[in-house]
Design goal:
This is Putative beta-lactamase. The protein is an alpha/beta fold. It is built from 7 helices and 11 strands.
Length: 263
């Protein structure tokens, strides 16, 4: 039987190299749950794990059992991707690499934009894709036309920019950088199902951001004065379930900061 997304607690092969185990932590910010990606070169025993997930002992144990794990990589700092880092390190002993030094384990070094990682018969390239968070990165898999995008691009819907350290200018640049990879790349996102064409979805994301910016500009003009973030959200996101407005406020905060930077 061929598994399809979502498939919890099961290894689902996506390509000859890339498989995924979906963590059972669905929610407003995680969609169906966190995708933990497992990369294994044909004929090799060792694998590379990307984003072990949050502190879910059963999930972490299932992923660790797929080892031996040669290396663990982190796409960004959010807990649903990193909460299980320490426990996963204890289970596997595999070094952990990330942009944020907080998650380094086992002698793992900080990830550097543009570097090539040769490990377990695989060649991965690090692409800095900040915007969702300051430390966000994506990874390409040589020979596969595969890009693991973390939360920079999701399997459905659009990404919320974290108003703690997210930046819309950075995010737009990151989307353009992914777009420049060209056609023929599949998206392996941090949440949601994989997507067939990176360049198509990256362009859709760019178009969406430009549309939202136009809507925010129009809202500022229509509301006049100095409206609150919630007032802008209620104007721009009137077609969205109000339960999601607190999340939308994060993106609007980032959008307003971006517009102020253009003045």
């Amino acid at each position: 039987m061929t598994l399809a997304h979502p498939a919890y607690a099961q290894v689902r092969e996506v390509t000859p190299i890339v498989s995924v185990m979906l963590e059972n932590n669905p929610g407003m910010m995680t969609l169906d749950g966190t995708n933990t990606w497992i990369l294994r070169a044909p004929g090799r025993d060792e694998c590379v794990v990307i984003d072990p997930g949050d502190a879910d002992e059963e999930h972490l144990a299932r992923v660790a059992a797929l080892g031996p794990v040669a290396l663990t990589l982190i796409t960004h700092r959010h807990f649903d991707h990193t909460g299980g880092v320490q426990r996963f390190f204890e289970l596997t002993g595999a070094p952990v690499r990330s942009v944020d030094p907080e998650f380094l384990r086992g002698g793992g070094d900080t990830l550097v934009d543009g570097e090539t990682i040769d490990v377990a018969g695989l060649t991965l390239t690090v692409i800095a894709t900040p915007g969702h968070t300051k430390d966000s990165v994506s990874f390409t898999v040589e020979g596969e036309g595969t890009v693991l995008t973390g939360d920079t691009i999701l399997g459905r819907g659009t990404t919320v920019l974290d108003d703690t350290d997210g930046d819309l200018g950075d995010y737009l640049s990151s989307l353009r950088r992914l777009l420049d990879l060209g056609a023929g790349h599949r998206v392996m996102p941090g949440h949601g199902p994989e997507l067939p064409e990176l360049n198509v979805v990256a362009q859709q994301y760019l178009d969406h951001r430009e549309e939202r910016l136009d809507q925010v500009r129009a809202a500022l003009g229509a509301l006049g004065g100095t409206p609150t973030v919630r007032e802008v959200v209620e104007h721009v996101y009137s077609d969205v379930d109000p339960k999601l407005w607190p999340v939308a406020e994060k993106s609007v905060n980032v959008q307003l900061a971006y517009l102020r930077s253009l003045d």
